[in-house]
Automatic annotation (TrEMBL):
Keyword annotations from UniProtKB, A to Z: Cell membrane, Coiled coil, Kinase, Membrane, Transferase, Transmembrane, Transmembrane helix
Protein name: PAS domain S-box-containing protein/diguanylate cyclase (GGDEF) domain-containing protein
Any GO MF annotation of the entry: phosphorelay sensor kinase activity
GO CC terms, sorted: plasma membrane
Membrane topology classification: Multi-pass membrane protein
Organism the protein comes from: Pseudomonas borbori
Entry's Gene Ontology BP terms: cell wall organization
Coiled coil location: 530-557
SMART domains: EAL, GGDEF, PAC, PAS
Highest rank taxon of the organism: Bacteria
Domain EAL residue range list: 620-874
Compartments (UniProt record): Cell inner membrane; Cell membrane
GGDEF domain span: 473-611
Domain PAS, chain residue ranges per copy: 316-362
Length: 880
């Protein structure tokens, strides 16, 4: 009996061992199952060959154990094969036990499959107790199946085998179950390992990265390279070699250090390295991780190396681009609609805008407005045709300063060829410009004084000739030579001489108008060119003469040079022109010639090339001298012209000055007012007239018939704007005791318009004193309601040019009517001057003008005649 049990145990162990071999070496699922089924079946058959035989045909063996485990571990196919083999053999054996024998094949198979199903559904587990209970159940059923035997056999069988079956086969089931569980677990572990290895391999082969397994000595254990081009000598050749055999010394050392670092650390370590591969020099980034278990007895690491050449190159490009972007040039990147996306530091320095201020704006913010829309249109045209544009542009800095820049724009297109961005580089060329300017200056300007040189003068003279021909206005070329300058140079040296010349240049510049040209030809020779002079030659000559006098006066003042107080006068030679009949050279020669004439005439003088001019100027100079004297000796007299109302009643008079010239007799203002204005005598002349007028008013106030009369006095612009005029007039009024209410000042529109604001201030001050105002020659200027309303006015005086044309000329009539309507709307009195005929007066009266002055009533007359005239009675009108 014991021997039988040992035999059975040996059989089971053999089963397990064969099973393990099958599981390990047979890879194909189906074959493995067939073989497993065969094995289980064969063991059953072998078991039945040496059974515990109770009697012929009644055998006991371990088939229930084997078949139940075949069902549990092998599944339906395995169990079916084993069951069929065992069943077939049992049938062949035959005997009394054949029915229970077959039952004991089918029952463990089904129970095993049921247990298996329960396990697959997680209802049961395979464990010691479960197997023990299962074994007990199977063998209890086996014992019960003995009842299928004939009754006498059953009793014997029960008696003999029931206990051993239960006691031996139940633990045997447990034992076999545990052994098979282990074998199956190992097999499935191996399978899982194989699968995961395959998966890993697939992953590492699919990845572009290089995977290396290296041991602690730097030996290649495994190499997986998707692209063998990335390796030295192919993946296979490497395995077994050491790093030092493959890599250069420094490189291998770096790797050994990486391995050491990785082995010492729990976290992955990285290394960037360059490698010459068959595909060229590449850059790799290695990430190394320690393996938890030693390989071949040595600690090892896995290194995944990624080819980062492209990334590194891109990074490098980016850095180069960034550095290039931050160059000396201002850089600007915009989108297609010129909205600024990015600027560099140089741009900020040039433009004055910070990056934050610039980004998001359009490039229009830089526009200076110096270049018109046509300029930008042409620029965009070129850009859209060629993709690039380059040129000089005037832009505006944040502080408003306009500056020149050299601008280069490139359009950047996307894959579809549409402009996506513009890249602009700009260089501030203001310095270059100013250098250019300087060069130009050197070419056209005198280095010592900064005045235009001969070349520029000739250029301007050329232009002036053309211009004067077109406009008819005269221009003058004035040569100027310092008298005795040579002495200064000889006595005090060139340095002092140069200083003096600079001061002369300065004085010349100051004493001339903005539009005049002052040039230096060299040495002590200067040239002045005056443009836009009067059309009439004599008048132009006198303008030049006045400017010349101013210049001579300025140059005659003492100079302070090199610590010396120096004196120098100059001689001027003038040639006038108002056409291009004479060449530049001719004009220069003539001016030069007349300059020598001036020198010959005794220096500090001005001489005209044209003798007629010389004559005219001399006469004028004489008149001016006479006027000075005449003002001193009271040669200027007051003439009065009466002013009347519509009934012919005298309302006052206009004071008109006359000059009682000792040689030339009584002169009307036309002969001297102009000169007085130009030579600066008009102020004193007008003050004299005002003084006399005030005296007269004071006298009139004494007489009842004249006490109500007013006196109009003409006032020149120069006097109105003269400093202290208001106070001077106030004094004159107080001194004379005249009533300011009776004084009326006549001003012309052009006079007022010269400096409207100042005129208003002064007129209001005078108005405050009681003085009244009339606008003279009204209608000939640029009258506008706007200015009339601002002025403290009392009267408009219709100019005689309109009166003269009345009543026949419809346009004059229209103007007169308009003036009257304007005066009425502004509540101003209106008076007409130059009334010579009754028809004129009637026309004026019928249109609403109620005050008159003119030859019809009286000519201007001396004060004594005015007093003697029978003017103070209203019947004057009836007498006409
Ligand atoms: P005005 O202020 O327009 O003076 C009117 C001028 O017309 C006067 O010329 C006067 O004699 C003249 N006149 C008067 N009635 C008639 C007439 O019925 N027919 C014609 N054809 N002429 C008439 P006058 O006295 O020769 O003065 C000329 C200009 O000189 C004045 O023009 C005025 O602008 C200026 N003037 C006169 N006296 C002074 C003065 O004391 N100071 C200033 N700054 N200018 C004065
Ligand atoms: Ca007047
Ligand atoms: Ca007038």
């Amino acid at each position: 009996m014991t021997l039988k049990l040992i035999e059975s145990a040996a059989l089971l162990i053999a089963l397990c061992w064969l099973h393990a071999l099958n599981m390990r070496h047979v890879q194909r699922q189906l074959l493995r199952k067939l073989l497993a089924g065969g094995l289980f079946g064969a063991i059953c058959v072998v078991g039945m060959l040496a059974p515990l035989t109770l009697q012929e045909g009644l055998i006991f063996d371990a088939r229930t154990v084997v078949l139940s485990m075949a069902g549990l571990f092998g599944g339906p196919l395995v169990a079916a094969i084993a069951g069929l083999m065992a069943g077939a053999y049992r049938l062949w054996l035959g005997g009394v036990g054949v029915i229970p024998g077959l039952f004991n094949i089918l029952m463990p198979v089904l129970l095993g499959l049921a247990y298996r199903t329960a396990c697959l559904h997680n209802w049961l587990r395979i464990g010691v107790w479960q197997l023990l209970l299962f074994g007990a159940l199977v063998h209890l059923l086996l014992v019960l199946s003995l009842s299928l035997l004939p009754a006498q056999d059953f009793g014997q069988a029960l008696q003999q085998v029931a206990v051993p079956i239960l006691l031996v086969l139940t633990p045997a089931t447990l034992l076999l179950g545990l052994l098979l569980q282990d074998i199956y677990r190992q097999a499935s572990d191996r399978q899982a390992l194989r699968e995961s290895e395959a998966r890993l391999r697939a992953i590492s082969e699919a990845s572009p990265d290089l995977t290396l397994v290296l041991d602690e000595e730097g030996r290649y254990l495994e190499v997986m390279a998707p692209d063998p081009q990335l390796l030295h000598g192919g993946a296979e050749g490497l395995v077994g070699k050491r790093l030092a055999d493959v890599l250069a010394v420094g490189q291998a050392e770096k790797f050994m250090a990486l391995i050491a670092r990785t082995l010492a650390s729990d976290s992955p370590q990285t290394l960037e390295y360059g490698l010459r591969t068959p595909a060229g020099q590449r850059v790799f980034e290695g990430r190394a991780r320690r393996l938890d278990t030693p390989l071949q007895g040595k600690r090892a690491v896995v290194v995944i190396a990624r080819d980062i050449t492209d990334r590194v190159n891109f990074e490098l490009d980016r850095r180069i681009a960034a550095i290039a972007f931050e160059s000396q040039q201002g850089m600007l990147i915009t989108d297609a609609s010129t909205r600024i996306l990015k600027v560099n530091r140089a741009f900020c320095q040039i433009s004055g805008y910070s990056a934050a201020e610039a980004i998001g704006q359009t490039t229009r913010m830089l526009n200076s407005g110096r270049q018109g829309p046509e300029f930008y249109q042409a620029m965009w045209q070129t850009l859209s045709e060629t993709g690039i544009w380059e040129g000089e542009v005037w832009n505006r800095r944040k502080n408003g300063e306009v500056f020149p820049e050299w601008l280069a724009i490139s359009a950047v297109c996307d894959e579809r060829g549409r402009v996506s961005n513009y890249v602009a580089s700009l260089t501030d060329i203001s310095e270059r410009k100013s250098a250019e300017e300087k060069i130009k200056h050197l070419a056209f300007y005198d280095a010592l004084t900064g005045l235009p040189n001969r070349r520029l003068l000739r250029d301007r003279l050329q232009q002036a000739r053309a211009l004067s021909r077109r406009s008819g206005q005269h221009a003058a070329l004035v040569f100027l030579d310092l008298d005795n300058f040579k002495n200064v140079n000889d006595l005090y040296g060139h340095q002092v001489g140069d200083e003096l010349l600079c001061q002369v240049a300065e004085r010349l510049r100051h004493s001339l108008r903005e539009r005049d040209t002052v040039a230096r030809l060299g040495g002590d020779e200067f040239v002045v060119m005056l443009e836009g002079l009067e059309i009439r030659a004599e008048e132009a000559a006198s303008q030049v003469e006045q400017l010349g006098a101013k210049v001579l006066e300025a140059l005659r003042q003492p100079y302070l040079a090199g610590g010396h107080s120096l004196f120098s006068s100059a001689s001027l030679g003038v040639v006038l022109f108002n056409d291009d009949q004479h060449s530049v050279d001719e004009l220069m020669q003539r001016a030069d010639l007349s300059m020598y004439t001036a020198k010959a005439a005794g220096k500090n003088a001005l001489s005209f090339y044209d003798p007629q001019m010389q004559e005219a100027v001399s006469t004028r100079l004489q008149l001016e001298a006479d006027m000075r004297r005449g003002l001193q000796s009271g040669e200027f007299l007051l003439y009065l012209q009466p002013q009347l109302d519509q009934q012919g009643g005298l309302t006052g008079a206009e004071a008109l000055v006359r000059w009682q010239h000792p040689q030339r007799g009584l002169l009307a203002p036309g002969a001297f007012i102009g000169i007085a204005e130009r030579c600066g005598l008009i102020e004193s002349l007008d003050m004299q007239v005002l003084g006399a007028a005030c005296e007269l008013l004071a006298q009139w106030a004494q007489q009842p018939h004249s006490a109500g009369l007013s006196l109009s006095v003409n006032l020149s612009a120069r006097l109105l704007y003269q400093a202290g005029f208001v106070e001077a007039l106030q004094q004159t009024l107080q001194h004379s005791g005249a009533n300011p209410q009776r004084l009326k000042l006549e001003l012309t529109e052009t006079l007022l318009l010269a400096d409207m604001d100042e005129a208003i201030v002064r007129m209001q001050a005078l108005r405050g004193m009681g003085i009244r105002f009339s606008i003279d020659d009204f209608g000939t200027g640029y009258s506008s309601m706007a200015y009339l309303q601002q002025l403290p006015l009392d009267q408009l005086k219709i100019d005689q040019s309109f009166t003269r044309e009345l009543p026949g000329n419809p346009s004059s009539l229209a103007i007169v009517r308009a003036i009257i309507a304007l005066a009425q709307s502004l509540k101003l009195e209106v008076i007409a001057e130059g009334v010579e005929t009754r028809a004129q007066r009637d026309s004026l009266l019928s249109n609403g003008c109620l005050h008159y002055q003119g030859y019809l009533f009286a000519r201007p007359m001396a004060v004594a005649d005015f007093a003697a005239a029978d003017l103070f009675r209203p019947r004057l009108a009836e007498s006409l």
